[in-house]
Each structure stands twice: as C-alpha cells, then as structure tokens.
Design a protein that fits this description.
de novo design (two linked rop proteins); mainly alpha; about 70% helix; disordered N terminus
C-alpha cells in the first residue's frame, strides 16, 4: 500500500464553470447530502479493510458497510430520493463514479470471499492492495463534487464538508495502518503511512476549528453546536494520538500487550469515528441555513 499525496489548494482563488448537476435542480440540502455521503464512501473503504483484520468480531459490521457502500454508490450514479441523492448528469463525475464502480466490484468479491470463510493471507493481501486505489478514486469523486458545488454553496462550505468528511476516512485509515504495524505486516511501510495519516488528520482538525488558508478552511465560530462537537472530537483525538505515537515509535510489545493495545485502539477509534460523523452531519444541516448569524463557519474576512 502506498499512501497517496494530495496537494491542497484554495479554491477561493478562481471560479469554476458549474456542470449540469450543480446548477440545475439540486437543492442546497441535496448538494450537502451528496458531499456528506460521497465523502462517507471513502471512510467505508478503509473501515471495511480494517474490519477484515478483526473478521471474527466484525462480520455483521462488514456486511452492513458493504451494503451501505453499494447503496450510496448506486444512489450517486442513478439517484436516491430517500437519501437526498440526485442523479448527476455531469460527464466528468459520472466517468469517475463508473471507475469507482469498476474498482469496487473485485474488492467487494474478495471481501465476500472472506465473509464466506476464506481468510487466507492471499485473500487478505488482495484486499490490502485493492483498498487504496478504491479510496483514492472515491476521493477524486468527492473533489469533483466539491468543485461543482463550490460557487453555489456558502464560501468555504463545500471545502469544509469535503475535508470534514475526509476526517472519517482518515480515522479508519489510521486504525488499519496501526493494526498492520502491530501485526507485523509490512511494518516499516505502514509505520510511514500511519505517521503521514496522523499528520494530515491533525492539520485538518486544527483547520476545521481555527481555519487554514492552505486547506481552504474558514474555521468554525465558537459557541455553535458544530464547534462544541469539534471540541469533543479533538479531545478524543488527543486521547487516541498517544496510543498511535507509541505504535509508530517501534515499541516492542509482548503478545498480550499487543492484543491489549489493539483492543484499546479499536475502542477509541470507533468513538472518534462516531463523533466525527456527528460533526459532518451538523455541517450538512448547517449548509442550508439562510441567516448568516446562524451559520457556524467563519466569514472569509475574519
């Protein structure tokens, strides 16, 4: 696995010609839902891969996540009114969604094989190799949606929804990489990947709270529900971070210590994911607010 490098630039510096999807019949609520759920797909690629490492205790969750990924991908392509997913007519986005669909099918088949009892190293290795291209291409879909919706949402909101949603994925990517290090699967490669993922999560977390011009994040106003939720996420992150730092420090655990550390990391990781998901949902809800005084993100001139 090789962690891909993203160069974040501020989209505030130029205008984009909006595709058919973005300026026709999609409402603000629908656009926000698309950014939220398309972003959640990235997280599911990593959560499914992580849960494979705990197959005996995560079977029900794996099945649920596979079904959710399927449903959302189909909704993004064909539309799904129940989940506020309007069918996109933009050729570039459709092309990228179809590419994700092509990558999803073999990945799904390998996960299904594991669920059926094939937990061979060869099968798990295929999933390990396939999950990153799938996630990278799903990330490209979300970036395309962000560009499409940038001018039609409040300043900074499209980027905020994208990167807040991406934090969910990073939480699961960190957990997967930590598990692979602890289980001595390509430990040096995964240790390097884990350090990079932790750094990006930390930078984005600070940007969501206080703003980051490099990431295009305006920051979040204090005394708002989203700010309070971000503070809750940040508190959990600072409890989780030392656990990960000890893993990347090449500390040598006994077998019992390793299993205890894995269990502790899993527990906090899921709490982190749940709370980050709440924050993204709050951002989605806030995107439709008409009154500037009620909006949780800071104005560009602050």
């Amino acid at each position: 696995m090789k962690w891909f490098s993203l160069t974040f630039i501020s989209l505030l510096s130029f205008k984009l010609v909006l595709p058919v999807y973005a300026n026709s019949y999609a409402t603000t609520a629908e656009k926000s839902a698309v950014l939220n759920l398309a972003g959640k797909e990235r997280m599911l690629t990593q959560k499914i891969s992580k849960d494979i490492l705990h197959i005996r205790s995560e079977i029900d969750d794996l099945k649920k996540n596979i079904d959710e990924f399927d449903q959302t991908l189909n909704g993004l392509i064909k539309g799904d009114p129940e989940h506020k997913l309007v069918k996109t007519e933009d050729p570039a986005i459709l092309k990228q969604l179809n590419k994700v669909s092509e990558l999803w099918q073999p990945f799904r088949e390998n996960v299904a094989a594991v669920l059926a009892g094939d937990i061979s190293l060869e099968r798990v290795d295929k999933i390990t190799q396939q999950n990153m291209p799938l996630m990278e291409n799903m990330n490209s879909v979300v970036d395309l949606y962000e560009k499409a919706f940038f001018d039609s949402l409040e300043p900074g909101m499209a980027t905020t929804l994208n990167l807040a949603g991406k934090q969910r994925m990073l939480s699961q990517k960190m957990a997967k990489e930590a598990q692979l290090v602890l289980r001595n699967v390509k430990p040096e490669e995964n240790r390097t990947n884990l350090i990079a993922t932790m750094s990006l999560f930390d930078k984005t977390m600070k940007g969501l709270i206080a703003g980051d011009s490099e990431l295009g994040l305006p920051g979040t106003q204090e005394d708002t529900p989203i700010y309070k939720q971000l503070m809750a996420v940040d508190k959990i992150w600072h409890a989780y971070k030392p656990i990960l730092e000890k893993i990347v420090s090449n500390y040598h655990y006994t077998d019992d210590e390793r299993e205890a550390r894995i269990a502790e990391a899993r527990r906090i990781n899921l709490i982190l994911l749940m709370n980050m998901h709440r924050a993204v949902n709050l951002y989605e809800q806030a995107a439709g607010l008409r009154s500037a005084s009620l909006r949780p993100w800071k104005s560009p001139n602050k």
